[in-house]
# Entry
Amino acid sequence: MNRESRRFLLPRHTPVARRVRRACIFLSSLLLCVSLTANAQKTNIDPGLIAHEWGTFTSVAGETGQAVEWLPLNGPGDLPSFVEHFRGIGFKVGLGGTIRMETPVLYFYSTHDTTVDVSVSFVHGLITEWYPQATHVEPSPSLNNVAFFQQQSSGSISWNSVGVQPSANPVFPQEIQPSHYYAARHTNSSPLRISTYSGEESEKFLFYRGVSVAPAPLFALVLPNGQIEAMNQSSIEIPKLILFERRGEKIGFREVNTLREGAILDPPILDASLALDSLLPDLESSLISGGLYPEEAHAMLASWKDSWFEEGSRLIYIVPSSFVEKILPLSIEPQPAAIRRVFVGRMELLTPATQNAIETAVATHDQLTLAKYGRFLAPMIESILHKATDPARTAQLNEALQQIYVSYAAQNQLRQALSLTRVLP
# Structure
């Protein structure tokens, strides 16, 4: 090192050198603290909190395979009276939609008492039922043009200051009338408590339902020979797809593991000796593989297996996670260390066998057979009418459809009356 170079170096132990080093250390520490604080504020993660959710998306396949808009005019009133409703009981039954979101339940597991804020949006949809009482629901029930709102906007619901209390032992509301709603409580999730204007409400989960006019992630085209062409409309694979059929006591099913683009499925071979026990364990395993705890998967099947495996033909599938996040964005503050959301899709099919069964039952006034198709009977008759050419058969189908409308009005009045007479214990 030459003399000129040494001239510009400070000796290590001079006062000036020490001041410079202290300034550098202070500045570095300050920048580190600012960076750590910013990252903590940005993430706001609670390492002792986990959230799990399961739910269903129900659709009806149209003539070209896409999910069509439909009204479940004779759908059952299957919720307890303490559940909140957008515009009252029965409103959703007459609300058209391509996707009916049914029984999403959001569980929390925490190592400590904590408080969370939760909000969910439903793309091109409305939140129609919920419990506990929400802090805010958008749009307002006083909205006039609900159909226009669905086309242009997204409904939402939020719960603020939800108390997650793992050591609490609250009494949850219960009614004498049976309901699939209660099966979702059979998990080890932390009890929740919310303070509302009418008092405190407790539950094992946050519950909500809704209706959307968004397209479904699956197309299902019924081919003339009875085969089903299933087409994945999502950007990622569908982990599990089941074609299920029931005709009286005979059932049959075909399974597809990992549907990336599409598949053509032959109609299942129906067998009276075939039991659901041969299908349910595999489906439950798929739910667990998707991220649910075993007791959550069991609770989901206990809630829906009677409905999923009723009369008719349908596709049952695990909804791609990317579709769930896109159509149903969820926000939780503070953010849990892990969030798992597993939804099952159901797409009802008007196969040649189903059409023949409905037309025969309409012609012979076989109400018992028609009742087996439940809330899907009206959209199926409408689809058959769209293709009908025989005047006599068209008249019979129109008469049956009008009877469904009359029955819907009577059932809705009965639900309203029962809701006024139910008293919580």
Remarks:
- Residues 391-421 form the longest helix (31 residues).
- Residues 1-13, 20-26, 28-41 have pLDDT under 50 and may be disordered.
